[in-house]
Amino acid sequence: MAVIIIERAKIADFFGTFVESGYVVIEGERIARVGAGAAPEIPGASRIEGQGLLLTPALINAHAHLYSTLVRGMPLRGFSPKSFGQILEQLWWKLDRALDLDAVYLSAFVGGLAHLKRGVSVVFDHHASPAAISGSLFQIKRALSEVGLRADLCYEVTDRGGQRERDLGIAENVAFAKEGVVLGRFSAHFGLHASFTLSDETLEKCRTQAEPLGLGFHSHLAEGKEDPLDALQKYGMRTAERLDLFGILRENSILAHGVQLSQAELELLAERKPTVAHNPRSNMNNAVGTAQVEKMVVRGIPVALGTDGFGCDVLGELLAARLLAHHALGDPTAFNDAVAKRILAQNYTLAEKAFSVPFGKVCPGYAADLVLWDYVPPTPLDAGNILSHLLFANISEGLRPLYVLVAGQIRLAEGKVQGVDEAAIAARAKQKALEIWSKL
Ligand SMILES: [Zn+2]
To answer: Pairing state of beta strands 54-57 and 3-12?
Structure first.
């Protein structure tokens, strides 16, 4: 079993661990020992010099769309949306239809590299490529394997492309859950787009396929007003109530956004306990409203944090969640450290459920998913203020990892991704982006 020793690092996590200068011994995929002072001598172990670096657990992105990576800088001809539905029609549903399997692979590769370089080791991705459905999740897996990330993948089933595409989407979820999962590396959810693009017949089919495999769902929920309006007009009930009829509000489901929810829906979510993935920057950008995160947390609804494809800066997203809550509620204490830590803890719980190893603490037995940040604190740092240090270092100096370990593997060293020719991948991605943009 490979042994790595990180020595002379400042060590902290969000849940109480703090060592001013100490070591971490990693055996295989887990942390074996943590201590203060000099590291033990272990013959054959690799050593990482941690002096001047801050060691923390790696971050988790609970809701991502890696396929959106190649949209950066794209000219938006005729883009003048007046609603969230029009943003989907005028941008995302055009883009996803232009993707072929090579574009799926390259966008996941570039997006995966970006996540790694922001200290993220696990991505819960939600994928759509309606002109290239079959095999798409396996292309994402191939790309992320080369980057060295862990990921939980799903394909978003929808009726918007007709019955054939719907059935291919269902089949892709099933195929990946059966053949793509690798213990500790790749896990699966059953992907759904959102209630307003899914018929009762389709939801029933999805339930029938997902249940025997024990899969939770990964779906959008009440992101914009389109979702509750559609559910009320067609089915006479609210979105979460409708999804509940098909067993979708399961404890192992991830429901992204949850912006347009009634009090009764919050009660229902509190009872069923699916995870709601909050994506504040995307919500602000799409002008869909403000999720009632603090109410959710108070009611015991598990809330996690995602980026929804709006970059991969999880620490920045957490700060945005705080700013949005304070702004929306007119209360500068609404989103305090306790709320932030509950949300971070839920991200780690999702990873633990997906990969069957505890995440989020620098303690023996925990996943060796670790980041060494290039950060020398200019003010005192301890167990109580680590969150404040990371959030404000991130926005003031642009916090960057020097090393990232994923499942005990060194994937980033001295700021360089290991075993990957980044320039060559960027060149291929740029060529592919040009090709896609010319189709739109
Ligand atoms: Zn999303």
So the answer is: parallel
Predicted TM-score of the model (pTM): 0.97
> Token pair 């504040």 is at which residue?
280
Q: Kindly report, residue by residue over 117-175, the tens digit of the pLDDT.
A: 999 999 999 999 999 999 999 999 999 999 999 999 999 999 999 999 999 999 999 99
First to last CA, the chain: 50
Q: Are strands 217-221 and 190-192 parallel, antiparallel or unpaired?
A: parallel
DSSP state of 70: G
Instruction: Pick the closest to residue 132 from 181, 164, 97, 173 (CA basis).
Output: 97
Question: Per this entry, what is the length of the chain?
Answer: 440
Instruction: Give the Å distance between the CA of 143 and the centre of ligand 1.
Output: 20
Distance CA 117, CA 111 (A): 10
- Residue 427, classified by CB atoms within 10 Å of its CB into exposed (0-12), middle (13-18) or buried (19+), is exposed
Name the residues around ion ligand 1, CB cutoff 5 A: 256, 308
Cα 184 to averaged position of ligand 1 atoms, centre (Å): 24
CA of 129 to the centre of ligand 1 (A): 14
Confidence band for 77, pLDDT divided at 50, 70 and 90:
confident
Question: How many Å lie between the centroid of ligand 1 and the Cα of residue 304?
Answer: 13
E strand spans, 28-177 = 30-36, 46-49, 54-57, 59-64, 120-125, 150-153
All domains of the chain in start order, with CATH: 3-57+363-417 (2.30.40.10), 59-354 (3.20.20.140)
Tell me what the mean pLDDT of segment 105-111 comes to.
98
Angstrom distance (rounded) from CA 216 to CA 403: 33
* pLDDT of the residue at 60: 98
144 conformational bin, left if phi > 0, alpha if psi -120 to 50, beta if neither = alpha
* 242 CA to centre of own chain: 25
Distance 20 CA to ligand 1 centre (A): 39
**Torsion-angle region of 206 (φ positive above 0: left; ψ -120 to 50: alpha; else: beta):** alpha
275 alpha carbon – ligand 1 mean position (Å)? 14
Residue 63 CA to ligand 1 center (angstroms) comes to 6
Could you tell me if 401 and 410 are in contact, meaning their C-beta atoms sit under 8 angstroms apart? no
371 strand-pairing partners: 56, 404
| CA–CA separation, 239 and 268 (whole Å) | 11
Kind plus residue range of the DSSP H or E element containing 294? helix 293-299
Q: Which among 99, 130, 306, 96 is positioned nearest to 218, based on CA atoms?
A: 306
Q: Are 66 and 112 in contact (CB under 8 A)?
A: yes
